[in-house]
Amino acid sequence: MASKLPVIGILILLIVISLFNSLRKPLVIFLMVPLAVIGVTVGLLSMNQPFGFMALLGFMSLVGMLIKNAIVLVDEIGLQASEGKDPYHAVVDSGLSRCRPVSMAATTTVLGMIPLVPDAFFVSMAVTIMFGLTFATALTLVVMPVLYTVIFNIKSPK
Fold first, then answer.
1. Are the beta carbons of 121 and 21 closer than 8 angstroms?
2. Tens digits of per-residue pLDDT, 100-150?
3. Cα-based angle 22, 27, 33 (whole degrees, multiple of 5)
4. Nearest alpha-carbon partner for 33 in 8, 67, 75
5. Which of 12, 42, 110, 112 is the most exposed place for a label (fewest CB within 10 A)?
6. Could you give phi then psi for residue 34, rounded to 5 degrees?
7. What span, in angstroms and rounded, lies between the C-alpha atoms of 63 and 80?
8. Which domains does the chain have, with CATH numbers?
């Protein structure tokens, strides 16, 4: 599996680059992935679980969910900017308008993982997804707009 992960990662990156026809937007999207490591680490350590094969599968699923969340936010910023909004207000309004859908999707996924916690086989995967998604969603809703404004050099209007 380790030999296939770089190839799959590059394919996903190429798809996102072709989707946005840009390099900076995929950069913002993929910089959200390391935020999941914080939650995964806290979760696995607090629940005394190893980072084994099932946790790795959970982490790969988690990366897909985070990329989807970041794409939703970046796409909304682009839509609002294309409607003629000031770039700064497009970033702020996009963060506010996408907060509920992104949070609800994360919440339903986390709640769906709860039945797997007592299972000895799936517990590390469930903990990885639950904690990683909770931390990364909260951080994504704050860090992604900030990172977007830094990478695209957007200043607040006077």
1. no
2. 999 999 999 999 999 999 999 999 999 999 999 999 999 888 999 999 999
3. 140
4. 67
5. 112
6. -60, -20
7. 26
8. 25-151 (1.20.1640.10)
